[in-house]
Specification:
By secondary structure, the protein is an alpha/beta fold. It folds into two domains: about 270 residues, Aldehyde Dehydrogenase, Chain A, domain 1, CATH 3.40.605; about 190 residues, Aldehyde Dehydrogenase, Chain A, domain 2 (3-Layer(aba) Sandwich), CATH 3.40.309. It has 14 helices and 23 strands. The chain has a seven-stranded mixed β-sheet with strand order 15-16-17-14-13-19-20, with helices on both faces. Strands 10-9-8-11-12-22 form a six-stranded mixed β-sheet, with helices on both faces. The longest helix has 21 residues. The protein binds NADP nicotinamide-adenine-dinucleotide phosphate. NADP nicotinamide-adenine-dinucleotide phosphate binds next to α7 and α8.
Length: about 475
């Protein structure tokens, strides 16, 4: 018997005949089902959210923060349940799922406070008798669309600032991973958030997306996912001028200089490449190693990669779980095959792992030519592709030679170089000797085709606020 989940709509738990079936990528077994809505259902949800907005925006930022803190506390009390669900729907190792839950809770606590700091300003007048005020007001109803790779935390990066700002939210999780969003909806219901301030929808992405885009009461869409779908939302918004925030794909370079601490660089590559089964938007995609350290690094890295434990994310000590689905696995093996045909060497892995589930053996490729897809495109799999470089100027040029600009990394012990490199790399986030830079209190987002706008930090709430100038004349 499969676990069944309902949708939270207008303060009620709604079921439907048509279900979304959720399978575990470790064994391919269906283990849960979720209710869905059609386009009419989304239309009603937007209408209800628009009504709820009138009172939610008038609630004090302090009181809204109290709700966020209560949701965080409720999530903390169910943390292990959340982590298990994330691992079962997404496949990532349980320890990493626990980290995702902890980060989600921290985001809620951060934005519970940021709502109170959505300051405006008083501007000195240019004309006699005038007074100028700048105030910030919530945008209105927000559609939040989340991907499957971090199903909980990337939804929270939208929901928390939107609620803190005074917006009402309709969340659409990815169809592959809707369960942590359902559990989140249960937490939100349990703390008594007023009805329709938060609603959960699931179903056909194109139908839901179209209604969010075309319904004039939906004032904003915040989307995290592929650049391809991001572009289609931009095309739709060109007709309606719906405001968009976009967190899109990446192609992160990692640069290891001769002066790097070898162990720190190897550890950093392992984390930024293999975390989340290689399916992170900020994952190392192109790993450039300077020639003086190349041979030593390859030996150490290859040994460490061969030692990674592959398996069901719920298993003890597992480092790398399955890819999200069969299609992702076959894309990954085709990337490897193409690179090998073009002359790359396979020093670890290189093929499917086991008979069951969507596992790829953690792979190390060296001598990869730059024209192949694993250099040009986002790999989104546990494949480390290494490139040799001679000097700083040349590698920075190559690192920036991509339409993406989400994250970039460098390993060096030279402080002058660290600043030079960090300031030259075209990316929204640069980690110097740091493989996991994102944190609640700093902005996250992309340059170029990696996105529009920023999440987290004090900037994270901006996406959900309109700025209004009030001019008062005739003051004596
Ligand atoms: P995706 O296919 O673009 O899907 C993302 C979300 O958009 C899902 O909820 C999906 O729903 C929905 N969607 C699909 N088509 C849509 C449409 N026409 N209108 C509205 N919504 C639509 O991306 P993904 O494969 O889940 O995620 C992987 C990508 O996300 C990678 O490129 C990764 O780099 C990027 N990403 C970026 C960030 C960042 O912060 N910049 C973070 C994580 C991931 P269904 O699941 O129902 O199709």
């Amino acid at each position: 018997m499969m676990d069944s989940y309902k949708l939270l709509l207008n303060g009620e738990w709604r079921d439907s005949k048509k279900k979304l079936i959720v399978t575990n990528p470790s064994d391919g077994q269906a283990f849960a089902q979720v209710a869905t809505v059609d386009r009419n259902g989304v239309n009603r949800a937007i209408a209800d959210a628009a009504v709820a907005f009138e009172s939610w925006k008038a609630t004090s930022a302090l009181a809204r923060g109290d709700y966020l803190r209560a949701i965080a506390a409720e999530m903390k009390s169910r943390a292990e349940q959340f982590a298990t669900l994330i691992t079962m729907e997404n496949g990532k190792p349980l320890a990493q799922a626990r980290g995702e839950v902890a980060m989600s809770i921290d985001h809620l606590l951060w934005f519970a406070e940021e709502g109170r700091r959505a300051y405006g300003r008083v501007v000195p007048p240019q004309a006699e008798g005038k007074r100028n005020l700048v105030i910030r007001q919530p945008v209105g109803v927000v559609g939040a669309i989340a991907p499957w790779n971090f199903p909980l935390v990337l939804a929270i990066r939208k929901i928390a600032p939107a609620l803190a700002a005074g917006c009402t939210v309709i969340l659409k999780p990815a169809s592959a991973t809707p369960l942590s969003a359902c559990e989140l909806a249960r937490c939100i219901d349990a703390v008594g958030l007023p009805k329709s301030v938060f609603q959960l929808v699931a179903g056909s992405a194109s139908e839901i997306g179209r209604e969010l885009l075309e319904n004039p009461f939906c004032r904003k869409i915040s989307f995290t996912g592929s650049t391809e779908v991001g572009r289609s939302l931009i095309q739709g918004a060109a007709q309606t001028c719906t405001e968009l925030s976009l967190e899109l794909g990446g192609n992160a370079p990692v640069i290891v200089f001769d002066d790097a601490d070898l162990d720190q660089a190897v550890e950093g590559i392992l984390i930024t490449k293999f975390r989340n089964n290689g399916q992170s938007c900020i994952a190392a995609n192109r790993i450039y190693i300077q020639e003086g350290i190349y041979d030593r690094l390859v030996v150490t890295l290859s040994d460490r990669i061969k030692g990674l434990k592959v398996g069901d994310g719920l298993g003890d000590g597992v480092d790398v779980g399955p890819l999200i689905d069969e299609r992702a696995l076959s894309t990954a093996t085709s990337f490897i095959d193409e690179a090998v045909e073009a002359g790359a060497q396979v020093l670890a892995g290189g093929s499917r792992f086991g008979e069951e589930g969507n596992f790829l053996a953690p792979t190390l490729l060296t001598e990869v030519p730059e024209h192949v897809r694993c250099h040009q495109q986002e790999i989104f799999a546990p494949i480390a592709a290494l490139y040799r470089f001679q000097n700083e100027e040349q590698v920075l040029k190559t690192a920036n030679d991509t339409e993406f600009g989400l994250a970039a990394y460098a390993f060096t012990t030279d402080l002058n170089r660290a600043f030079r490199v960090a300031e030259t790399l075209e990316a929204g986030t640069v980690g110097i000797n740091d493989p996991v830079p994102p944190t609640s209190n700093c902005p996250f987002g992309g340059f170029k085709q990696s996105g529009w706008g920023r999440e987290l930090g004090s900037e994270g709430i901006d996406a959900y606020l309109e700025t209004k100038h009030i001019s008062i004349a005739g003051i004596t």
